[in-house]
Amino acid sequence: MFYTHTCGELNIKNAGQKVTLCGWVQRSRDLGGMTFIDLRDRYGIAQLVFNMEADKALCEKARSLGREYVISASGIVMERSNKNKNLPTGEIEIQVEKLEVLNPSKTPPFTIEDHSDGGDDLRLKYRYLDLRRTINKNNLIMRHQVARAVREYLDGQKFIDIETPFLIKSTPEGARDFVVPSRMNPGQFYALPQSPQTFKQLLMVAGFDRYYQLVRCFRDEDLRADRQPEFTQIDCEMAFVEQEDVLQMFEGMVKHVFRKVKNTELPVFPVMKYEDAMRLYGCDKPDLRFGMPIIELNDIIKGKSFKVFDDAEMIGGICVSGASEYTRKQLDDLTDFVKRPQVGAAGMVYIRHLPDGSFKSSVDKFYNAADLEKICTHTGAAEGSLLLILAGNKNKTRSALSALRLEMGARLGLRKKEDYKPLWITDFPLLEYNEEDKRYYAMHHPFTSPRPEDIPLLQENRDLSKIKASAYDLVINGTEIGGGSIRIHNRRLQESMFRAIGLSKEEAEQKFAFILNAFEYGAPPHGGIAFGFDRFCSMMIANEDYIREFIAFPKNNAGRDMMLDAPSEITAEQLRELSLETKREK
Amino acid sequence: MFYTHTCGELNIKNAGQKVTLCGWVQRSRDLGGMTFIDLRDRYGIAQLVFNMEADKALCEKARSLGREYVISASGIVMERSNKNKNLPTGEIEIQVEKLEVLNPSKTPPFTIEDHSDGGDDLRLKYRYLDLRRTINKNNLIMRHQVARAVREYLDGQKFIDIETPFLIKSTPEGARDFVVPSRMNPGQFYALPQSPQTFKQLLMVAGFDRYYQLVRCFRDEDLRADRQPEFTQIDCEMAFVEQEDVLQMFEGMVKHVFRKVKNTELPVFPVMKYEDAMRLYGCDKPDLRFGMPIIELNDIIKGKSFKVFDDAEMIGGICVSGASEYTRKQLDDLTDFVKRPQVGAAGMVYIRHLPDGSFKSSVDKFYNAADLEKICTHTGAAEGSLLLILAGNKNKTRSALSALRLEMGARLGLRKKEDYKPLWITDFPLLEYNEEDKRYYAMHHPFTSPRPEDIPLLQENRDLSKIKASAYDLVINGTEIGGGSIRIHNRRLQESMFRAIGLSKEEAEQKFAFILNAFEYGAPPHGGIAFGFDRFCSMMIANEDYIREFIAFPKNNAGRDMMLDAPSEITAEQLRELSLETKREK
Q1: What is the block-wise mean pLDDT of chain B (586 residues), using blocks of 10 residues?
Q2: Which helix (H) or strand (E) holds A402?
């Protein structure tokens, strides 16, 4: 080893010891006859001190070091006269006797500080420098801790980590596959897995009743902000289980991880049906750190000649306590917010229930004090409350109210950073009808089982929209962390499912013969779940949904690796060997 | 849960308990009024018993079950009258009161027994059934245990598990890359990593001084027996270390894994230089479970008018104790063995030093008793020994002697299954000259550092064949388990290396700009190692080198997934989106 200690571990107890440290020059200061250098490694920062009087040559050598030089320094640990209580090593410094430059450094293109001055693409190009910043370093260390805690829990529950293949068969259903041309079989391709879904089911058929894997998945989707073409999943499956067993097992896992990594005890996870989530929060991943549920107002608010309401399929409101004194400007701001294309409301109506018991609204022309009081009583809008109301098409209004609710939660500081409110969403629809393609799609994926009571509908291919799935999502603070289902384990039922999503018998056979066959050789009942590991880390560590910060070498929003400059052209020889031609000119 | 207990956990202490088990019907026997079913799950086998007198309908239902049916059975745990001491559950049986068929099964295409009657491709096609066989199931469970022990050790040594990308840039050097066409960038491709080599080095530059990953790697090589196009590596890297530090750290890891998984204490790993391994064992991965080193005989055996020896660049022999009484047939067999094309010797000479002190050889015409005695004394071939001698070109003779030595070790039962003899091979040549391509190739890879004393040779681009590398392989029982090196961390030296292997400045820049640049921003000295995880498991668990048995869903020797039928054609739509044309007709 080049070192005896790391830069983070020395303290007053080491005083008098002779040590050798290695690391990077974080900064240096010359104070008269003294030079101080902050030496940084993964574990912390130690202060090196050089004295002009004691050793002029050495001190001058120290003064010649630039930022990010890699050095080795040997010397004696001394108690500092000027202690820094904010630093674990702040009580000591190293009086250096020997200094070696292991590698010099050019001046970095941006500062290696918590708040860097580098732009996104520049920092991605020099990701190895960006990762030296404490915040990024800690993100990856925490990610490792999350992975450890996940494995610890699942290993303890007798799950077996089994690796599944990456070079598989293309069976696109929903997202696009990335494909890999086969040199040995001209004209044929492997595909990279969008998830190991069918493999984990086959492992259940093979009898490995509890499987998990932290596994890379690939989706060639049109990119948008913070989507990565490759991402990591905590992928799990269990045999001989019902939905409740899966929920309990993975509630346990998430609690274990929070306990181990954040020293946080999570509450019991409530279970909410999809229908209730849509009705109460306007979306299937509600942030439960605050209340403010949607109140449906159709029955109470129509019939007062206010055309906007009378014509609306749905009128809904949220009641914001303590906000009755919102100013005109604040209310205009909110109106602008709901009219944004991403939110999509046509306008907003408010009713202020003032502390003195009176009412003011933006629709006083149509509703008198008694009407307003009735509405406030219905919604529980006590004195001091502000009622915000949107109207229109049902789905759009729910979605807009959901956005408004989140905005109000944020404005009022109700979405607290260290507060975690997980919940399960269950009873999703099995199928979604797509108006454009005139066909049904599986809402989760085509291996999801209907709820037992709805199996006949699928078998008989009727009332498809009404079928509920044995599917569940785990949501924390408004972010979907994971999702899964009880699977179909019967060939006939699987064939019904393929039929429902418009796959012909031939297509089903061509794509999925292996799993249809497997179901005929003693497939046990089974179910599972997959967590988006990058997103899980992002939520757990920072309580935010910005996954790129938790990936060592992410791609930019155009799917490009700025550091490697990939994708890139390959040689004519490579193309020839693969029997491929590219058609770039088109 | 569908079950209260697993099939492996019940014993006499559970007698009288009411339990529910789930599993597969392994076999059933009708004995007069009784029916016995062996029910199998991942954890073991439990005996179910049905009594015709007690419940005729139930017993008949039991008799209707076929092999591999999935069932659930509830009943009372009873002490057996006829105990089976070979089975953990052999003291009890379950008197079944309720039986449910969870899924029937067609008759499997081969028997689910330790010795199956299915051929290779058939078992791969139905891999989910093949994996039900105890031996395959146990292989995957052991693989999981090996992975756990590896992680446990490395986590304890402060290594951080960091995931590196799979969609990277094609920089073929040696083996071929698998490539992935980019839909968003027509004509451009990602490549799948052959190893995360450059990424782990960049992580060292980033300051993560100890990294590891169990990571999939991809090589599009011409396939041969037991090569997989995708394989898993235990990939590790450390900063601020010298070769000795790496050897110690990973000797510790391998010992830890053997201790945890096999309850075996390995001896200290000896270190052997490449040159010595080649001289003594004729190869760079000697099996040290037995001696029988190669003895060079040039000085002692030439000059007796035996042309074959006199003309040979090298004459070498191995001395086989206790084999002097080998029969003519046995010796002919060995001669046939060494003449096989894979071994490649022209012939074999033997000298038998008989128990009575006399000598017999196949070259008695040229060597008298005194000559033979001299040779035997020189080689230490005591009475009762057999000396086997090959001659010819030096490299070929060494290689043939190595094969002969392994063959003799096997014939004499010296390669014992539960005996593990690890060693490090060090001081490999840095470069190998390829006569065909008229250029040097890196023997490990182009990021390997020369031994410090040989750096000037590389810088000055001279005596390239003489340069030794700071590289090391871990060998156990004749199989290379892992290999690594101290890396170059200086841009100029890296450029010298690229020059030595015939990469122009432009090519080096085009392929490796990112790492050359990284070396200019404070790259620390670093080194690492990678273990072939599939091979490691194969060696550890079975002490054999047949990796396919330790992979859940392997491909066959033609790189084809027989179960999925991959690779396969993709749709015209997929090709169009990727701006690709295939040239199958050529």
Answers
A1: 97 97 96 94 97 94 96 97 92 97 96 85 95 96 98 98 97 86 94 97 98 97 82 98 98 98 96 98 97 96 94 97 94 97 95 95 94 94 96 96 97 94 98 93 96 97 96 96 98 97 94 96 98 95 85 93 94 92 69
A2: helix A394-411
CA distances from B44 to A441, B17, B41, B240 (A): 41, 19, 6, 49
Instruction: Please tell me the predicted confidence (pLDDT) of residue A584.
Output: 61
Contacts of B514 in chain A (CB under 8 A): 563-565
- pLDDT category at A586 given cuts 50, 70, 90 is very low
First CA to last CA distance, chain A:
57
Residues 505-564 of A with CB under 8 A from B: 513-514, 517-525, 551-553, 555, 558-561, 563-564
Nearest to B238 by CA among B457, B11, B453, B526: B526
Q: How confident is the model at residue A356 (pLDDT cuts 50, 70, 90)?
A: very high
pLDDT in tens, B289-326: 999 999 999 999 999 999 999 999 999 999 999 999 99
Q: Do A167 and B182 touch (CB under 8 A)?
A: no
Q: Give me the architecture of the B12-103 domain, per CATH.
A: Beta Barrel (2.40)
ipTM for the predicted complex comes to 0.95
Instruction: Give tens-digit pLDDT for B346-404.
Output: 999 999 999 999 999 999 999 999 999 999 999 999 999 999 999 999 999 999 999 99
**Beta strands per DSSP E along A178-246:** 179-181, 189-191, 210-218, 230-239
Residue B159 distance to chain A (closest CA, Å): 10
- Classify strands A422-426 and A271-273 as parallel, antiparallel or unpaired: parallel
Q: In terms of DSSP H, where are the helices of A412-475?
A: 455-459
Which chain A residues have a beta carbon less than 8 Å from that of B166?
166, 192, 216, 218, 230
Contacts of B249 in chain A (CB under 8 A): none
CA distance to partner chain A, nearest, from residue B54 (Å) = 28
Domain boundaries along the sequence of chain B: 12-103, 135-267+530-573, 290-411, 422-528
pLDDT at B175: 85
Q: Which two tokens stand for residue A295?
A: 């109140």
pLDDT of B22: 98
User: Are A160 and B140 in contact (CB < 8 Å)?
Assistant: yes
| A240, A246, A488, best to mutate vs chain B, most B CBs in 10 Å | A240
A42 touches chain B (CB under 8 A): yes
Q: What is the distance between the alpha carbons of residues B413 and A169, in angstroms, rounded to a whole number?
A: 44
> Could you tell me whether strands A210-218 and A160-161 are parallel, antiparallel, or unpaired per DSSP bridges?
parallel
Distance CA A122, CA A114 (A): 16
B412 shares contact with chain A (CB less than 8 Å):
no
* Residue A242 forms contact with B (CB below 8 Å): yes
Where residue A214 falls among pLDDT bands split at 50, 70, 90? very high
Whether the pTM exceeds 0.80: the reply is yes
- Gap from A7 CA to chain B (nearest CA, Å): 12
Q: What is the pLDDT of residue B586?
A: 43
Q: What is the CATH number of domain A290-411?
A: 3.30.1360.30
Q: Which one, of B428, B539, B551, B406, lies nearest residue B479 by Cα?
A: B539
**CB proximity A100 to B under 8 Å:** no
User: Residue A216 phi/psi, 5° resolution?
Assistant: -75, 140
The first and second tokens of residue A132, run together, are: 């030296």
Using the Cβ of B370 and the Cβ atoms of chain A, whether some distance falls under 8 Å is answered with: no
Backbone angles phi, psi at B336, to 5 degrees: -60, -40
Distance from CA of A220 to the nearest CA of B (A): 8
For the A135-267+530-573 domain, the top CATH level (class) is: alpha beta
Given an 8 Å threshold on Cβ–Cβ distance, is B216 in contact with A177?
no
Q: Which of A279, A272, A216 is nearest to A247 (CA)?
A: A272
Could you say which of A232, A523, A581 has the minimum Cβ distance to residue B163? A232
